[in-house]
Fold this sequence. Notes:
The structure is a single chain. By secondary structure, this protein is an alpha/beta fold. Helices cover 48% and strands 19% of the residues. The chain has an eight-stranded mixed β-sheet, sandwiched between helices. The termini are far apart. The model has no long low-confidence stretch (mean pLDDT 89).
Amino acid sequence: MEELLFLLMNFVFVLLMFQICFFEINFNRVKKSDNLAWFLSLDKSFNYTRTGYMAFVCFICYIFSSSDPFLSINWILYFVLFLALGIVADAIVQFLTLKYGQIRCKKQIEYAKSLKQEVLNLKTYNDVNDEYHVSMKEYEETNILRDYVTPHDHLAFLSIDQGEFAKNYAPLPNVVYDVEPYGDIEQIKENLFETPIKPTTLTQAQQMPFKDNKIDVIMNQFCNYEKNELKRVLKPNGYVILNQYGTGNYQELVDMYMPFKMKGEWNVQSCSESLESIGFKIVQRLEDFGYIQFRSIEGMYSYFKRVSPDLSDVEKYVNFYMTALKRIKEGSTFKLSTYKFLVVARNEM
């Protein structure tokens, strides 16, 4: 029994040293990346959940190390003992590592908890806050659209803003549609009630709700699209204007939630090549590399609530808001990169 206890203690000590080394490596990496959620993950009660994992590891190790015949009485008895020691040792190490982390990071945990509470309080914030600065636009999509629309055209907006962009555009040609793939069509109709704009959505087959060669100009305002559908509904020599957010938009947010870079990029070049591949001729290409500088977390929340409602979900993006709040407190501002581009293409049948 003493020999087994000595073996268990040595096993625990070696595993613990390894775990502490890995913990310190993660600790230094997390400090540099402002991953406050990592500190919050330490603020929990111990709950051992690795029994299955350790049983598998012990089984693999024992197969290669045991000299007894496979599944013999001795093999089974010693495997059960080896498995019990492995699970007990791992549980002790996991518990001690958690306690070490809670002591080692006590200040960071308390700070992260206070930031999280401040962020969650935003859910009751209803004021309009303009404590942010948006960089100057490199192009104005409304003016560009006017260059391609004539009074007798059939114009179709493709957007996700409940008809706001279409509603604020002037002058409107004779026939105007607003296609909203994701919005509440009844709400959109109400929003556009006093305008000549005809609100609609995609068909059940996710197609544009128009006959072939029906539309003179399609204005896509930050909406997903199917390029062959755009070509189908456009008249010969009709124009599609694509105003899109690119891969580099909100880069700091993307880096936080998608640390591994995805293959391919969505930018003015890839968009143009995609349209050219089905017979469009590129007429105009513009890019806007900008930024939004927030001076308060309330300003950031107010901005996203108006511009991108999904990002105003503070529970969903709590780590992002906490990081922004930390940087505002430490450096007075938080800067978020933006990237959008515009492509004008002509349908050459």
